[in-house]
């Protein structure tokens, strides 16, 4: 299973400046593991010390906020778009 | 003439001597961010130079402005403020703006009325005093002019040329107007289903207005992605990449309330919650006033107000949680309809730290409260004002707010923008022929 992950500006130092990178996995957790294998250090920016999504990170699988579904266990269909977005915007 | 109090900054040209032995020197350039020293992560404390960034590289936490605040005699600072412009710029020594900000093209918002609301107090059984901070008096009729004015100055300093935002309506109008006055391009984004009044008020200033097929949270996500794309280069999203500066504008509500009360703090404040930014910055402003010695250090309680149909912070408060679970909004209070509030966790911290609470009311209660405020004080609030007044009523009825204490309730926007909310239950008392007989027959004589 392959997904395309959209990387926010503040994490692009880990992806050589790329705004979108491929990753493998059938769940969000697996996609993040795949991301970490190719871009060392990036998962520690997205996950906290206990392995949960940081509270100021929003992650979407296609158009769905994973907090409304299964969090890290959210299924990632083949060809899905995963977006990592800082949560501190708006208002 | 009042003594001038200057910022004790070690990082700006202001600390550089302005004359030399060889003769008069050129006027030193004013520090573009006044007393602001850096951006600081509210979560982990990491500091960054003042720049158009909004999230911490380490932990994604929100960045906020850190200051070298004025030092010296509080009385001299009070006098300096009191002799300043009748706008938020009287507080320039406490904001991330240049000292000459009032000479630049902007909307000069603020210094709105603090209305002593004796009639409403009587209806609610408040004996300790009640005031309405009525921000309908701002140039585009909502508190958003305050925050946009600060973001505009940041955009000017950073050389950004397009002013933008994600908006539930009020902000779009404030950005459009500010951009028009200052000569910026504007391009603002709103959910497609906003009230007609807010859409017109956002579009009339001539900038680009884009309606997104989705909720506010969808609009917000879109804007966050746009700012990371080459399309967004040169754009100042007031509530995304300029959010640290933008948020500081809400501190001026705290400053004005304290000054208008005679340089003292009320016991209670009832504040609406959308993202939670306004509430957290009002708290920041109150703490700064105490730290600077401008007001007596006394306890105050902060109460947050939400509509039941979008009450993730209220739900978390009542459940004892310190995180906020996002919701899908469904309420007439569209200006507060943010299902994933960025500052929700901080609102919870503040309500608990100050001994306040977060409460919510139904849409029916919102409409009743809009009419109550209008009937008792002659103030026509938008739905967000209905939420705060409705929550105030509920807080008293449930014993969560002491009616013998002094309270300030915020009305952050004008009812003319949300006519739809009250139109179905508001209209002519009677429609009659133009005769005295008809007037009598209608039971009005």
TrEMBL record, chain A:
Q: Name one Pfam family in it.
A: ThiS
Q: Which InterPro entries match?
A: Beta-grasp_dom_sf, Mopterin_synth/thiamin_S_b, SAMP1_3, Sulfur_Carrier/Prot_Modifier, ThiS/MoaD-like
Q: What is this protein called?
A: Molybdopterin synthase subunit MoaD
TrEMBL record, chain B:
In the record, what terms sit under GO molecular function? L-serine ammonia-lyase activity; threonine deaminase activity; threonine synthase activity
* Superkingdom of the organism of origin: Bacteria
Q: Needs which cofactor?
A: pyridoxal 5'-phosphate
Q: What is its EC number?
A: 4.2.3.1
Which residue ranges are recorded for the region named Disordered? Answer: 1-29
Modification N6-(pyridoxal phosphate)lysine occurs at: 144
- List keywords of the entry alphabetically: Lyase, Pyridoxal phosphate
Q: Which residues form a coiled coil?
A: none
Matches recorded under CDD domains: Thr-synth_1
- In the UniProt record, the signal sequence range is none
Domain Tryptophan synthase beta chain-like PALP: start-end pairs: 107-413
Query: EC class of this enzyme?
Result: lyase
- Can you tell me which family this protein belongs to? Belongs to the threonine synthase family.
Checking NCBIfam families in the record gives:
thrC
Q: What is this protein called?
A: Threonine synthase
Lineage, top ranks: Bacteria, Bacillati, Actinomycetota, Actinomycetes, Kitasatosporales
């Amino acid at each position: 299973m392959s997904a395309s992950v959209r990387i926010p500006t503040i994490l692009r130092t880990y992806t050589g400046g790329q705004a979108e990178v491929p990753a493998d996995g059938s769940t969000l957790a697996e996609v993040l593991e795949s991301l970490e294998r190719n871009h060392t250090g990036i998962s520690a920016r997205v996950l906290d010390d206990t392995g949960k999504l940081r509270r100021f990170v929003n992650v979407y699988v296609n158009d769905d906020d994973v907090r409304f579904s299964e969090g890290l266990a959210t299924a990632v269909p083949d060809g899905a778009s995963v977006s990592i977005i800082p949560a501190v915007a708006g208002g | 003439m009042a003594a001038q109090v200057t910022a004790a900054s070690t990082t700006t040209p202001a600390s550089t001597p302005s004359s030399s032995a060889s003769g008069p020197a050129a006027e030193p350039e004013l520090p573009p961010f006044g007393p602001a020293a850096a951006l600081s992560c509210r979560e982990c404390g990491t500091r960054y130079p003042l720049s158009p960034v909004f999230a911490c590289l380490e932990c994604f936490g929100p960045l906020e402005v850190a200051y070298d605040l004025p030092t010296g005699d509080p009385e001299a600072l009070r006098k300096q403020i009191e002799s300043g412009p009748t706008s938020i710029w009287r507080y320039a020594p406490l904001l991330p703006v240049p000292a000459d900000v009032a000479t630049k093209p902007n909307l000069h918002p603020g210094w709105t009325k603090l209305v002593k609301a004796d009639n409403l107090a009587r209806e609610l059984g408040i004996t300790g005093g009640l005031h309405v901070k009525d921000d309908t008096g701002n140039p585009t009729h909502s508190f958003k002019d305050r925050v946009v004015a600060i973001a505009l100055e940041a955009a000017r300093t950073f050389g950004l040329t397009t002013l933008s935002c994600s908006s539930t309506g009020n902000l779009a109008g404030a950005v459009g107007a500010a951009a028009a006055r200052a000569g910026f391009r504007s391009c603002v984004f709103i959910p497609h289903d906003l009230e007609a009044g807010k859409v017109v008020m956002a579009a009339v200033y001539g900038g680009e207005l884009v309606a997104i097929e989705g909720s506010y949270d969808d609009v917000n996500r879109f804007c966050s992605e746009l700012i990371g794309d080459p399309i967004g280069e040169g754009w100042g999203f007031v509530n995304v990449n300029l959010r640290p500066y933008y948020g500081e504008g809400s501190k001026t509500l705290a400053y004005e309330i304290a000054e208008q009360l005679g340089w003292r703090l009320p016991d209670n404040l009832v504040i609406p919650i959308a993202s939670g930014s306004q509430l957290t910055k009002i708290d920041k402003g109150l703490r700064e006033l105490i730290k600077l010695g401008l007001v007596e250090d006394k306890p105050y309680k902060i109460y947050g107000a939400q509509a039941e149909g979008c009450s993730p912070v209220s739900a978390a408060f009542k459940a004892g949680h310190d995180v906020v679970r996002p919701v899908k909004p469904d309420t007439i209070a569209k200006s507060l309809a943010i299902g994933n509030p960025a500052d929700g966790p901080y609102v919870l911290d503040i309500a608990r730290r100050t001994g306040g609470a977060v409460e919510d009311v139904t849409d029916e209660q919102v409409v009743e409260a809009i009419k109550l405020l209008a009937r008792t004080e002659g103030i026509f609030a938008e739905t967000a004002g209905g939420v705060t007044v409705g929550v105030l009523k509920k807080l008293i009825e449930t014993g969560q707010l002491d009616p013998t204490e002094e309270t300030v309730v915020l009305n952050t926007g004008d009812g003319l923008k949300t006519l739809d909310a009250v139109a179905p239950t508001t209209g002519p008392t009677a429609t009659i022929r133009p005769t005295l007989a008809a007037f009598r027959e209608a039971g009005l004589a």
